[in-house]
# Entry
Amino acid sequence: MIKKLALLLCGCMSICLCCCGPKHTAIVEHAEQIEISFSWWGKDARNEYTLDAIKQFEELHPHIKVICKYSDSSGYQTRYNIQMVSNTEADVMQINYAWLEEYSHDGSGFYDLSTLQDYIDFSSFSEETLNYGMMNGKLNAIPIALNTMTIYINETIYKQHGLAVPTGWDDFFAAAEAMNGTCYPLSLNSKSLWFAAASYAGQQTGHHIMAQDGTIGFDAADVQIMLEFYRDMVNKQVIPQVEYFNKLNLESGDYAGTMQWLSDADYMQSAIDSRYQFVIMDYPAAASDWYSKPATMYAISKNTEYPRESAMLLDYLLNSEEMAEKQGIEKGIPISSRARTYLEDHSMLNGIKYDAFLKMEEHLEDMSVISFYFENATVIDLFIESCNTVLYEKNSANDEAQKFLDALAETIAESQN
# Structure
């Protein structure tokens, strides 16, 4: 009886502390230790600062032992698929945005975080950003940072050719004429081409390629615009073929620009030769024809035995000063206002990634939310195949557009089943 009473008092103490809102990290004494697991993916630098942060969390909460499970991105997803099917996933986990639809179409695949408001400080997030994690009225995940495609321009090379930083797609074609084959004004990989072509066609037609739930909004005429856009960019030396994209050519100056995710900005800042000055270009389309998404997200397992402690860890990862200090902007500019305030106060928000974020933030309210199916690897491969079919004149753009549209509908239907 005495033991039960002691445990009850400890539980009440924890609830009282958390109900006040986790404004400050505090050491909480408990009678017995429990174990929760946390999984993420990343390179060595991310693993090191995350492990260090988890040690601090355990020191602040001695009753919680965190079992860390981490790997590179490819290995993570392979194991994650198995764990989700077998209900052996970690209590707290880093997830991709598209996994919300894949594993929680009806909102039941992850824990409903809105029921854990005593342990997670939701005041650090706007309703709009929390909506990225809503599935069927349930808050399945919270974004760590937001992401969008960003165009990075080598201003040094453009100036050498007497050119200003482009402001629209037509400027790239004009730049290709001025550069006359000495370098490419822009470079795209498969994903950024798919994004750029969809945005360009949407700008021309007022349509969106697909809704968040996968409903297709383009017709064959819209897809034809995408295919011809790629053909013209390659033939007029605006970009190299996507199969030949090599980011090392940004260092050599063979590419005078590129379009990559905002989250890839670290490469632009650290790997480019100091003789070049890269800047962020304005989006070459209206914000409504540009797409945003969460970079990565945190979720809690629907099967966790310890939702309270898992929520405490999730709040620490998103909102604590300790995590903000160690993580910085490695995972993107934090959405959490508490984490971002800490970074601002300690002069940790700077560089080209922050410039890219400010550009996104300026237009975020009007941006379209990317579809769960937009980054489907099969869809992108099919699109590149169609692009090359038109480029090498193996089929007309009109016929190939309908062929791709049929394959797109079939792929999305298969993904939904």
